[in-house]
Write a structure and sequence with these properties.
Shape: elongated
Radius of gyration: 27 Å
Strand content: 25-35%
Helix content: 25-40%
Structural class: alpha+beta
Largest sheet: 7 strands, mixed
Number of helices: 12
Length: about 400
């Protein structure tokens, strides 16, 4: 029996997706729930599991194909045998492809031409009605090295090769991933629609560093996870948001929507770009729960396993550029949120305390906020509340 493999339902805001790479070849045996292909949307990469055991007898959409929800991209024969089907696959033959300005090209010839960077419009076809065949393409000398290089660089299978890029005066053209396109769109949208202003303050990280050093070993033994700085940052942010709810609000037309919950987005780097998974109800999470969740997000981001649920929503975001050595920045708001906290590298600096110059581990914090609904007073006082909570961590335990 033939079973259709369809693109799963995408989120309401996602119209189409891109097929990244098939993990199975036509004619190979597959098992139920085995990942057949990765599908990239502008938010996440989805895995498409096999709906049943059988043989992948036809692939209707190849790598890099653009698809929509519910589209049939392959078929599985639940009664087929891999050895038999592999030698004579049951594949629907696509129509002969025609170029915009050239002879008709057979599918097999088009595939080889794309791999070799050969322009089929310049080939005299030997097939019926002048069609370009596989043999015609194979007979072409690989003299158009420029075309080969261009094709390879436009769709690289690996990250940019820095050494190759810097040798001579080449250019490398790499198409944006759907995620990168979406990030670019949202950042431009944020700057075009919000009245963004940034306020700064400096935080003495010594109290948090001393507390962390004192309890790190016991914390890890008790909870099975390391005590990092992000749990302190998240708790301090929630502390500040409770005092100044408008910083946790969002704009909807001419309305201000105040959120009675604290879903904190934490910016995480991934091979596909920046993603912001959400810590749901962060005010109800313990320090250990925050650390475990952030570690889970980090691993899922690296493995490309973040789900739409992980990335949807959020009332406030934290971006920690300090992990990469950033000293100061003005973070951009993640719409429809109205504010974001930028955290930077902690460095020892000379500061004045009680009329004396002392050395302290200092960190510059920056809050970018939408001035349409958040006045400077609320933004500054929110950041002061975060600063005070970190410089006296007992406030986070006593909630004062």
């Amino acid at each position: 029996m033939l079973i259709e493999v369809k693109v799963p339902q995408l989120s309401e805001s996602v119209a189409e997706a891109t097929l990244l790479a098939w993990h199975k070849k036509q004619g190979e045996a597959v098992k139920r729930d085995e990942n057949l292909i990765d599908i990239e949307t502008d938010k996440v990469v989805l895995e498409l599991p096999a709906p049943a055991d059988g043989v992948l007898v036809s692939i209707l959409k190849g790598d890099k194909g653009i698809v929509v929800a519910g589209e049939v991209i392959a078929r599985i024969d639940t009664e087929g045998k891999a050895s038999a089907v592999a030698s004579a696959p049951v594949q629907e033959k696509p129509p002969v492809e025609k170029t915009k300005s050239g002879p008709a090209v057979m599918p097999s010839a088009q595939k080889i031409a794309a791999e070799k960077g050969i322009n089929t419009a310049q080939i005299q076809g030997s097939g019926r009605d002048g069609r370009v065949t596989k043999g015609d393409v194979l007979a072409q000398p690989e003299k158009s090295s420029v075309a080969v290089q261009k094709t390879t660089l436009q769709q690289p299978s690996a990250p940019v090769n820095v050494e190759k890029l810097l040798a001579g005066r080449p250019e490398q053209r790499v198409p944006m991933s759907r995620l990168r396109q979406r990030v670019a769109e949202r950042l431009v949208q944020s700057q075009a629609t919000a009245a963004i202003l940034t306020t700064f303050n400096e935080v003495n990280m010594a109290p948090v560093m001393e507390l962390r050093k004192k309890y790190q070993e016991r914390f890890e033994k008790e909870h099975g996870t390391k005590l990092g700085f992000m749990s302190f940052f998240v708790k301090a942010v929630v502390h500040g948001l409770k005092k100044y709810p408008v910083v946790n609000a969002s704009v909807d037309g001419t309305d201000i929507v105040y959120h009675g919950y604290f879903d904190i987005g934490v910016a995480v780097g991934s091979p596909r770009g920046l993603v912001v998974p959400i810590l749901r109800d962060a005010d109800q999470l313990s320090f250990a729960a925050v650390e475990k969740k952030i570690a889970e997000f980090g691993k899922k981001a690296q493995d490309g396993k973040l789900s739409l649920e992980d990335l949807t929503g959020g009332t406030f975001s934290i971006s920690n550029g300090g992990t990469f050595g950033s000293m100061l920045s003005t973070p951009i708001i993640n719409p429809p949120q109205s504010a974001i906290l930028g955290i930077h590298a902690t460095k020892e600096r000379a500061v004045v305390e009680n009329g004396q110059v002392v050395v302290r581990p200092m960190n510059y914090f920056a809050v970018s906020y939408d001035h349409r609904i958040i006045d400077g007073r609320e933004a500054v006082l929110f950041l002061v509340a975060v600063k005070e909570a970190l410089e006296d961590p007992a406030r986070l335990i006593l909630e004062i």
